[in-house]
């Protein structure tokens, strides 16, 4: 009995920080403020795939976190974490979209989450641990809004 070798539908060739920034514009005053009350946190997430060549794509998972105390900014953390991926030959458009918009960011997310937690901790704040994201649900909601497969995801 022999097994046939089958090309995996998705191969992640590289993962990397494409862009990262952390701003703590109101230090050191903000540290006294957060002792009194927790900052309000707003998190935005985007997924952007870009065709490179052939079956190769770059998928960028962008996360931006804004923490504010009323009108005072506690911190702004931004991360663009990317994966260079290769899709198998012969996939349908639907399969390719699924791999680029759902599966790739699902693989990139744990690394992005760890980087953001370390960055905010190193900035003097408690580590920001972003809750897991259901990229499939995000994709389905975007499809429902536009009626067609999105080429970017935002939340």
Provide an overview of this structure:
This protein is elongated. It has a five-stranded antiparallel beta sheet with strand order 1-4-3-2-5. It is built from three helices and five strands, in the order E-H-E-E-E-H-H-E. The chain is about 30% helix and about 40% strand. Strand 2 (about 40-55) and strand 3 (about 55-70) form a beta hairpin.
Structure at a glance:
This protein has 155 residues and is α+β, with helices and mostly antiparallel strands.
Task: Supply database-style keywords.
155 residues, alpha+beta, five-stranded antiparallel beta sheet, 3 helices, 5 strands, disordered N terminus
Number of strands: 5
Q: Count of helical segments?
A: 3
Q: Tell me the strand percentage band.
A: 35-45%
Shape: elongated
Mean pLDDT: 90
Q: What structural category characterises the helix and strand content?
A: alpha+beta
Distance separating the two termini: 48 Å
Helix content, binned percent: 25-40%
Q: What is the alpha-carbon Rg in Å?
A: 19 Å
Main-sheet strand order equals: 1-4-3-2-5
Low-pLDDT segments, ≥5 res: 1-5
String of helices and strands:
EHEEEHHE
- Major sheet: size, sense and barrel closure? 5 strands, antiparallel
